[in-house]
């Protein structure tokens, strides 16, 4: 059965669940919190006004490592990666034991395409704090996207053993179970991710794919529709919905959904091949 969840590439809104990873996973505070790549982006945190306010804090306390870490997170949310790196570098220089700043810097390195430095920073964060769940999740996602599934699974498993409340750990482990055909285990993990982030579309898409693989078309269709209601800008959701329409023989609705997926991402392979099938 062809499923569309959990691809390695990270393009526009049809990528792996959590394509907005950077904007959502930066840990500005001292705790990892529930911050997830599957939550709504708080654009205000990267606003010019917020950055100006944080700059004023730094001007008053220029040796406050946490202030640089927080502003670095804001720069990251705004897509200002060079300035984010500079702030995280400063935070680490002021406090070499600042494990959150290492993990935040790792995420910036990842989005600049430097996976080697990203892994090194996650390793350093975990050396400083072996119980830091966010670093296991961040490193695990890097491993997952690189095809290093065993190491990815171990990192997500470790975060879960630490009683993380971060839904990314369960969602990503669910993707690994799904890729191995262990759909019942995947369903459990996607359901846990949904309970932790009920307004996130991605775990519904993931769970729907596993329902479909198990022959539960009705629950799959319900999950895909919920995913679209929560975020209609993800091509994956529309392609998944189209697949159910296609299986039901409703080619007109399938074509509309595949076309909507391609409108969001003209290069989304599953939508291209699906549309070709129903038009053929």
Automatic annotation (TrEMBL):
It holds the Pfam family TPR_2. TPR repeats lie at residues 65-98, 99-132, 133-166, 167-200, 201-234, 235-268. Keywords: Repeat, TPR repeat. The keyword Secreted does not apply. InterPro entries: TPR-like_helical_dom_sf (IPR011990), TPR_2 (IPR013105), TPR_rpt (IPR019734), Ycf3 (IPR050498). This is Tetratricopeptide repeat protein.
């Amino acid at each position: 059965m062809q499923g569309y969840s959990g691809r390695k590439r990270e393009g526009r809104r049809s990528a792996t669940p959590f394509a907005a990873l950077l904007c959502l996973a930066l840990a500005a505070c001292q705790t990892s919190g529930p911050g997830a790549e599957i939550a709504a982006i708080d654009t205000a945190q990267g606003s010019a006004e917020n950055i100006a306010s944080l700059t004023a804090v730094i001007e008053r306390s220029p040796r406050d490592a946490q202030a640089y870490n927080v502003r670095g997170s804001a720069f990251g949310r705004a897509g200002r990666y060079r300035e984010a790196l500079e702030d995280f570098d400063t935070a680490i220089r002021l406090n070499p034991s600042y494990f959150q700043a290492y993990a935040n810097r790792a995420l910036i390195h990842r989005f600049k395409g430097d996976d080697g430095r990203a892994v090194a920073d996650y390793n350093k964060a975990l050396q400083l704090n072996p119980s830091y769940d966010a670093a296991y999740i961040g490193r695990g996602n890097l491993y997952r996207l690189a095809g290093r599934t065993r190491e990815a699974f171990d990192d997500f498993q470790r975060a879960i053993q630490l009683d993380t409340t971060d839904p990314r750990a369960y969602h990503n482990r669910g993707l690994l179970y799904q890729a191995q055909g262990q759909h019942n285990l995947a369903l459990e993990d996607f359901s846990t991710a949904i309970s932790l982030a009920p307004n996130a579309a991605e775990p519904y898409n993931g769970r729907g794919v596993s329902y479909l693989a198990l022959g539960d078309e009705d629950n799959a269709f319900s999950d895909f529709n919920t995913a679209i209601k929560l975020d209609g800008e993800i091509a994956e959701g529309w392609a998944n919905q189209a697949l159910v329409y296609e299986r039901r023989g409703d080619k007109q609705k399938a074509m509309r959904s595949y076309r909507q997926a391609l409108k969001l991402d003209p290069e989304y392979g599953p939508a291209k091949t699906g549309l070709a099938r129903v038009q053929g």
